[in-house]
């Protein structure tokens, strides 16, 4: 009798424990009094006594979504770890956008795991387009993009704009978290739609089943969605463990914004910034046409170290900034005749204006056509002649030179085979751009000669400076 009294509470406790145990997938998760997951373990192993080393470190410090330690999460972690080259390629693409995204996430006080979501959504490709016509880093479908005021027209698609789409995505994720109460359900709603998640929760509730994330019946894509994010998080948290070499991403802005109020061609804008066209397009992927319309008040994104060069080249530019114009066709006018008038093939005209082969005549529509060739040009700022300091060698140097050498021409000196390099002591206010302009060289040449990767210069440092007018 006494033994049964002792065993009864123990048996009840064991049974209660069994009844309260969720599926094996929910191990290591902690819930609050409302049954929502809370952050107990978020993969953070960082030294908070020191400032973050880079953007990746900032992300690790802001982890706040509880880890989803499930078999599916482990499967995806193993998958990504077995494809380190793919993870590294995605991380390389992310480097252009991470500082801005993490900064905005920190400003809003959101978990920094959200900065890893474009790995899952688009592989951090701003021009990614899904079968469902979802587009951009954050993969907005057209209707959701419109709901969050992302402009989509013939000229541009802001679902591909890094700034506009990031702000819209974070607005949406904040809304979903407020609606659903935990991040797993919010993320599932971002992928599947909040209505679908709420209907699945209501169905489970009516059947007396759990309404938490792991209890819901979801499509395979959504079921794998949070585990994929967890897998990327695991690798970013400890890249060495998974033999992934993350590219350096500093704690300074990669790009800055420049406002334009006049038409400008993508190709000319890239040339003014002295950067490859494909790199310019990677920062400005929202523009659908070869010309950016000034009356749209567009914001151009440029690498931080290209802005001074862009502005200097723009100031010196002569002629039209766009080689395109709008032609208002006459009713019934054929595309072949319009193409001939403007000296372009009909195929090119159709490609530029998204015209199918079945449509034979313009029917009074507005078309983008080549304009008159520009007569102006620009001398690139990084190739501008030196300003004053190196116009001639100092007089005392000439006096010390052997007879006949003082008057040696620059070309002859260069031909002598001696390295034509001098040094410059960095002063307050010096920049790579200003020094390139001063010494008649390029920013890239200064970087290469001094093994500089970024744009920061240390006051008092000695820089090696190339230049045909410099005495070695």
UniProtKB/TrEMBL annotation:
Region listing for Disordered, in residue ranges: 391-425
LysM domain location: 325-369, 422-465
UniProt-listed CDD domains: LysM, MltD-like
SMART domains recorded: LysM (SM00257)
InterPro entries (alphabetical): LysM, LysM_dom_sf, Lysozyme-like_dom_sf, Transglyc_AS, Transglycosylase_SLT_dom_1
Alphabetical keyword list: Signal
Signal peptide bounds: 1-19
Extent of Low complexity compositional bias: 399-419
Tagged with keyword Protein biosynthesis: no
PANTHER family cross-referenced by the UniProt entry: LYSM DOMAIN-CONTAINING GPI-ANCHORED PROTEIN 2, MEMBRANE-BOUND LYTIC MUREIN TRANSGLYCOSYLASE D
Family that this chain belongs to: Belongs to the transglycosylase Slt family.
Protein's name according to its UniProt entry: Transglycosylase SLT domain-containing protein
Organism: Achromobacter veterisilvae
């Amino acid at each position: 009798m006494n033994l049964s009294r002792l065993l009864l509470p123990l048996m009840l406790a064991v049974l209660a424990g069994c009844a309260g145990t969720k599926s094996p997938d929910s191990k290591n998760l902690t819930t609050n009094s409302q049954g929502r997951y809370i952050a107990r373990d978020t993969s953070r192993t960082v030294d908070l006594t020191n400032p973050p080393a880079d953007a990746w470190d900032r992300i690790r410090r802001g982890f706040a979504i509880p880890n989803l330690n499930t078999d599916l999460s482990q499967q995806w972690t193993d998958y990504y770890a077995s494809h380190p080259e793919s993870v590294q390629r995605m991380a390389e693409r992310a480097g252009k956008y991470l500082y801005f995204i993490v900064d905005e996430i920190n400003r809003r006080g959101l978990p920094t795991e959200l900065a890893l979501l474009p790995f899952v959504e688009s592989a951090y490709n701003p021009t990614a387009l899904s079968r469902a016509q979802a587009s951009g880093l954050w993969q907005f479908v057209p209707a959701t993009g419109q709901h969050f005021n992302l402009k989509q027209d013939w000229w541009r698609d802001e679902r591909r704009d890094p700034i506009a789409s990031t702000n819209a995505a974070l607005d949406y994720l904040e809304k979903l978290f407020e609606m659903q109460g935990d991040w797993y359900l919010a993320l599932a709603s971002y992928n599947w739609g909040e209505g679908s998640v709420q209907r699945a929760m209501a169905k489970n509730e009516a059947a007396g089943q759990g309404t938490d994330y792991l209890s819901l019946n979801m499509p395979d894509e959504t079921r794998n969605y949070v585990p994929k994010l967890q897998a990327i998080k695991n690798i970013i948290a400890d890249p060495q463990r998974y033999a992934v070499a993350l590219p350096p991403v500093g704690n300074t802005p990669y790009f800055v914004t420049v406002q334009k109020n006049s038409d400008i061609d993508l190709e000319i804008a890239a040339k003014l910034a002295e950067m490859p066209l494909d790199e310019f397009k990677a920062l400005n992927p929202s523009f659908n046409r070869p010309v950016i319309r000034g009356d749209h008040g567009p914001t151009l994104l440029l690498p931080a170290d290209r802005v001074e060069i862009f502005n200097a080249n723009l100031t010196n530019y002569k002629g039209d900034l766009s080689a395109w114009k709008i032609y208002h066709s006459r009713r019934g006018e054929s595309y072949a005749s319009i193409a001939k008038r403007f000296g372009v093939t009909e195929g090119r005209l159709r490609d530029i204006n998204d015209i199918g082969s079945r449509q034979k005549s313009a029917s009074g529509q507005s078309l983008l056509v080549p304009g008159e060739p520009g007569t102006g040009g620009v001398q690139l700022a990084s190739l501008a002649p030196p300003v004053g300091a190196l116009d001639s060698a100092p007089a005392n140097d000439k006096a010390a030179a052997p007879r006949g050498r003082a008057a040696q021409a620059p070309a002859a000196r260069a031909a002598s085979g001696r390295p034509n390099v001098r040094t410059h002591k960095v002063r307050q206010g010096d920049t790579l751009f200003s020094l390139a302009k001063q010494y008649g060289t390029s920013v890239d040449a200064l970087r290469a000669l001094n093994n500089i990767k970024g744009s920061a210069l240390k006051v008092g440092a000695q820089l090696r400076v190339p230049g045909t007018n410099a005495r070695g």
